[in-house]
């Protein structure tokens, strides 16, 4: 068998190599291209590719943030300034309103006093007693200016009231004829002795005849001045330092009754009598009757809160 025929087509003699030679090789596509990277024998690594600079972008963002922060701060400053101005305006408005109210109160009080003087009304004993305790609740201090505790009238209003409701020939607690001036002197002495006194009306009751009994409670603080006026013997005798120490700074609560004798004909008070129990509160402060007796011995005030003559009271200190 001819081997040449087995590897060539039957018409190979008709084929020419020139045809084959005219065929051009295809160029390989980019997809088919392979790149062989030779491994470096050295251990040095190639530098990584650097990213593009972003300085311009960051600068723009910072500018926007700074601008937004400046706007926020400016708005906050404006709001704070507006708030402070509103507070100042409110404060000025309140002060103006308060001043107007004070002036209005003074005008109303003057109108009330003018109307009362032009059209006097018949005073009842109940009204008189209530007004008495209202005006003299904190004592009588003619040397002090009018305060909120004494009302707008002050000592002058107290004096005018006493003159308007008390009879000229007033009877005192001893049944002797007295005067309005004498009553005010007693009030001034008690108020000097107990500077922080407060007398509170508890109830009013109808007494015998045309009299009215007013139950009251008087609260005050015992000071060295109080002891010097009410109980001068304690300060004169050095042996009483222990008693003085037990009394100084303590609160004294005295319960008493004021009796007003009313004259229906003249609508005036003809008698004022005050009785109180000072023994019980002092017994509570000192603890025994012996010390209480020592306190009241030859002093200006009796256990019934009656006043002795000042010559007798201070004679033991001579």
Describe the structure.
It comes from Phytophthora boehmeriae. This is Bzip transcription factor. This protein is α+β, with helices and mostly antiparallel strands and 318 residues long. The chain has a domain at 122-317: Nuclear Transport Factor 2, Chain: A, CATH 3.10.450.50. It is built from 12 helices and 5 strands. It has helices at residues 3-7, 17-21, 55-118, 125-135, 154-165, 180-193, 224-230, 232-236, 241-247, 279-286, 289-296, 310-314; strands at 166-171, 198-206, 211-221, 251-263, 268-277. A 5-stranded mixed beta sheet has the order 1-5-4-3-2. Strand 4 and strand 5 form a beta hairpin. It is elongated, with a radius of gyration of 55 Å. It starts with a helix and ends with a helix.
Please specify the SSE layout and strand pairing:
Layout: H1 3-7, H2 17-21, H3 55-118, H4 125-135, H5 154-165, E1 166-171, H6 180-193, E2 198-206, E3 211-221, H7 224-230, H8 232-236, H9 241-247, E4 251-263, E5 268-277, H10 279-286, H11 289-296, H12 310-314
Parallel strand pairs: 1-5
Antiparallel strand pairs: 2-3, 3-4, 4-5
Distance between the termini: 179 Å
Report the average pLDDT across residues. 78
Radius of gyration from CA coordinates? 55 Å
Strand content: 15-25%
Query: Per CATH, what is the topology of one domain?
Result: Nuclear Transport Factor 2, Chain: A
According to CATH, what is the class of one domain? Alpha Beta
Tally of individual helices:
12
Largest sheet, described in full? 5 strands, mixed
* H/E series: HHHHHEHEEHHHEEHHH
The level of helicity is 40-55%
Q: Strands of the biggest beta sheet: in what spatial order?
A: 1-5-4-3-2
Which residues form runs of ≥5 with pLDDT under 50? Answer: 30-42, 148-152, 309-318
Structural class: alpha+beta
Q: What's the CATH architecture name of one domain? A: Roll
Overall outline: elongated
Tally of DSSP β-strands: 5
